[in-house]
Specification:
The chain has 9 helices and 5 strands, in the order H-H-H-E-H-E-H-H-E-E-H-E-H-H. It has 250 residues and is mainly alpha-helical.
Length: 250
């Protein structure tokens, strides 16, 4: 029986930037929670529980107790005895971390400026290393957002993303930029929309005969009340504009 692969969950999202953003939600939140569940076994109460957890924290590993969000960033500081330039050494360290499993598919790397600051590297060297890795297809660079390790996160074991990340031997939190977890509620309407479109596609493809999102309690959308501009305030704006342009009152 079919499960929930990435390409299936993201079918309803065609805009490139939106699709990339929602693939991140799928990788970090949806697949760890229900990605290994058979399509026909997903029910409304399961989604209600997921929505409730997201209202507490967008990190599903959060249980309400303090913990540190560890990042498995390798030590990229150059070796003075290595004749290669700094960016080549940095790129090779990332390659080694990918091969060893220290960096897994979908893991994010710090921004160029953050990594340079954390490890005392030259920003140009970090940027050059990222570009070289991207050309090899080892990372994906999302301009203005993050750089992620390439590959299929679906290959990860079900539920592994829900576990607290534990540091490997020799891990240095300062170099990796680890920090205490801060609960940030996620807008459950985003996940609700992604799942709704995904299950509608599954029905069209006859993978299932029902959409469980319809039986889940839909998220409440808070609309911000926008106060109308008063006639007096509008008149002042018009008068100021005329004064600046030298126009005569009509």
């Amino acid at each position: 029986m079919a499960q929930l692969p990435d390409q299936y969950l993201s079918t309803a999202w065609w805009d490139v930037s939106t699709r990339e953003s929602n693939l991140g939600y799928i990788r970090r939140t949806i697949k760890p929670a229900i990605g290994s569940t058979q399509v026909r076994k997903v029910r409304g109460p399961l989604l209600d529980t997921l929505y409730a957890r997201l209202m507490r924290s967008g990190n599903l590993a959060c249980t309400g107790k303090p913990f540190t969000e560890h990042r498995h960033i390798p030590d990229l500081r150059p070796d003075p005895a290595d004749p290669r330039v700094e960016w080549q050494q940095a790129a090779d360290c990332v390659r080694a971390a990918i091969r060893s499993g220290q960096l897994a598919s979908g893991d994010t790397l710090p921004s160029v400026s953050d990594l340079a600051r954390l490890q005392g590297l030259k920003p140009g060297a970090v940027r050059h290393a990222y570009l070289a890795l991207a050309e090899e297809g080892l990372v994906h660079i999302h301009h203005g957002r993050t750089t992620t390790i390439a590959g299929d996160p679906a290959a990860d074991k079900p539920g592994t993303r829900l576990q607290l990340t534990r540091p490997h031997p020799g891990h240095d939190c300062k170099l990796s930029g680890c920090r205490p977890h801060v609960c940030k509620p996620m807008a459950k309407s985003t996940i609700h929309s992604i799942l709704s479109g995904a299950f509608e596609a599954a029905m069209r493809w006859e993978w299932t005969d029902r959409n469980p999102v319809r039986s889940a309690k839909p998220p409440t959308i808070r609309r911000q009340t926008i106060m109308a501009t008063s006639p007096e305030a509008a008149a002042k704006v018009i008068a100021a504009a005329r004064a600046n342009t030298g126009a005569e009152p009509g």
